[in-house]
Amino acid sequence: MLPRPGASAERPTSRNRDVAKKSTNWKAVWPDVRELLRPRRGQLLLGLVLIAISRVSGLVLPASTKYFVDDILGKHHTQLLVPLIAAIVAATAVQGLTGFWLTQLLSKSAQRLIAELRCKVEQHVARLSVTFFDSNKSGQLVSRIMNDVEGVRNLVGTGLVEFIGGLLTSVLAFFFLLRLSPLMTVLTAAVIIAYSVVLQRAFQTLRPIFRERGKITAEVTGRLTETLGGIRVVKGYHAEEREDAVFAKGADRILANVLKSLTGVSVLSLSATVLLGLVGALVMYVGGRQILSGSLTTGGFVAFTTFLGFLVAPVFQIVGIGTQLTEAVAGLERTREILNEAREDQDPNRTVTLGPVEGHVEFQHVSFEYEQGKPVLHDVTFDAQPGTVTALVGSSGSGKSTTIGLISSFHKPREGRVLVDGVDLSTVRLGSFRAQLGVVLQESFLFDGTIGENVAFARPGATMEAIENACRTARVDEFVERFPDGYDTIVGERGVKLSGGQRQRVSIARAILADPRILILDEATSSLDSETEALIQEGLGHLMRGRTTFVIAHRLSTIRRADQILVMEGGHVVERGSHSVLYALKGRYYDLYTRQHGFEANLFLAPGEGDTVEA
Question: For the chain, how many structural domains are there in total?
Fold first, then answer.
């Protein structure tokens, strides 16, 4: 069966992964294929019945050639002509109808399966940890969700059934051939069996090529997505040619892979053509001798060569369909890999469902590292009482965002505990906690929809009145009124049609509408001018009242009213206290505050006003 989403598995080393790739075969992926086919057993069974009827009907024409040549032409039994023609026409009609029904039945079923698999992979990916997304490009994930499952249509669609139908035709044709001429049949079968061994090894060689193609395509798609998403940066630095070169290099890698696979397929086609020539020459030689000796009639020879086409044709068909099935298996392997990634909500330790929280957050000797041996936080301990505001300040890379990530349960501590109302956050079901969490990030992300839809993202069932109230608090109404479509204004991809300050205000309104118990503001007013910031701070003050709030702010003037300020450096909390206490301490916070205010003051001095003149 397909791997259970979130199934834990030991992460293989690169060497082990290489070994795994080399050893992967149909036997390894058969449980996955069986799981895909099980819900569609009835459709596949009906498909096999239809293909059997179609193939048997298709053999009426070659079977009739012996009677046509020997009896009608040779013995002049003209009364058999009309019944023979009628049988051929009826068989052709049956073959055409069964082929139509087969395509309708299985092709549509395959497309439904692709849609189901895409939804399954997307649902799984969306529930993976933040760490996973930090290590994988979004474009690559999009490619894996949309493209890797495409080949599966050959497993449930006409590909697999045509493959089985080809084998069935070969078996039926083989028995007819054996009846007509055992000697020619045995010789022909020996050549085909030898070629089948070559086919098997060829497909084993092609499978890793197709697998690598999926990987390269995902990488190129990922970079292209980044380039298009950051087109303003690209144009701002006149980097179009550099990005062209990067994409061209990726396209060349895909081309090289495709050419490599085409070379393999071409060799197979060449081998099949040579096989057909050898079999034809062999049949002509042996058959001619048997006709001359009287052991085979002319009609029997014609029927044999016709049936031989039905025996050899599936070999050519297997080359094409086998390539498709090999590509499908490669995509299935990549899909299985991503479904093997553990979902963050399936941690067996997360068994506690939180009810309404008061918002008491406590760090107890917390240490954390993204990479082993490179700690980011060291023995961090602090206590945030319900309804209080805790501000985190410090230079870049000091650990502020990591601390916020731990509070949001994006990560788990390597040592120590993060408690919410006395409950270890690593044991809590994430849905019950994050439903009571509100986040306003420095980078205000908006979806390509209306302003109203983006605000309502926090609470999809919210009334328009509630949305407008949240927007008034966040001062969104001030610029919405200037748009002809008001709250129905389309913001564009990532909110590109709004200014940075407008996007930030929409993001704040979204958090206000969520009505969280724990609020995280990560540079929430960094994109606002001083006048707008003062207005927003008033709205945020209303929002923060009665909620436990964590604020990251580089503009230190915005956090002077915080209940406690944590000064972080190098992953340590080096100072803590209120603004007045830390300012009087004249330590690291004092340095940061005075340096920032001195810099800001100098920005408004007239040229030469701040200069000192030496005597």
Answer: 3
Say if CB 157 and CB 339 are below 8 A apart: no
Which of 410, 330, 336, 414 lies closest to 369, judged by CA?
Answer: 414
Whether 2 is in a domain gets the answer no
Cβ–Cβ under 8 Å, residues 413 and 368: yes
Boundary (domain end) residue, out of 279, 311, 345: 345
- The string of pLDDT tens digits covering residues 497-509 is 887 778 888 888 8
Convert the pLDDT of each residue in 545-594 to its tens digit: 788 999 887 777 668 888 999 999 999 999 999 999 998 998 898 888 88
CA 502 to CA 411: how far, in whole Å?
Answer: 30
Asked if residue 602 has pLDDT above 70, the reply is no
Q: Which range among 135-139, 345-349, 416-420, 504-508 shows the weakest confidence by mean pLDDT?
A: 135-139
What strands lie across the sheet with 374-384, from one edge to the other?
A: 374-384, 361-371, 415-420, 423-424
416/489 same-domain check: no
Three-state SS for 427-451 is: HECHHHHHCCEEEECCCCCCCCCEH
pTM above 0.90, yes or no: no
- 41: burial class by Cβ within 10 Å (0-12, 13-18, 19+)? exposed
Which strands, in side-by-side order, build the sheet including 518-522? 437-440, 518-522, 548-552, 389-393, 564-569, 572-577
User: To which residue do tokens 């089985």 refer?
Assistant: 164
What is the chain's percent helix, strand, coil content, to nearest 5?
A: 65, 10, 25
Q: What is the CATH number of the domain that holds 147?
A: 1.20.1560.10
Residue 283 burial class via C-beta count within 10 angstroms: exposed 0-12, middle 13-18, buried 19 and up: buried
Q: Rounded to an integer, what distance in angstroms lies between the CA atom of residue 202 and that of residue 208?
A: 11
Note whether 306 and 389 are same-domain residues.
Answer: no
Q: 383 near 366, Cβ under 8 Å?
A: no
Residue 483 identity (one-letter amino acid): F
Give Cβ neighbours of residue 415 (< 8 Å, ≥ 6 apart).
365, 366, 367, 379
One domain for residues 205 and 337: yes
Nearest to 407 by CA among 550, 563, 578: 550
Whole-number Å distance between alpha carbons of 253 and 263: 15
Strand partners, 371: 374
The one-letter amino acid code at 543 reads L
Residue that finishes a domain, picked among 297, 322, 345: 345
Q: 366 and 482 share a domain?
A: no
What's the CATH code of the domain at 472? 3.40.50.300
SS3 304: helix
Domain of residue 464 covers: 443-515
Residues 6+ positions from 158 with CB-CB distance below 8 Å? 102, 103, 106, 107, 110
Q: Which residues contact 370 (CB under 8 A, 6 or more apart)?
A: 131, 134, 376
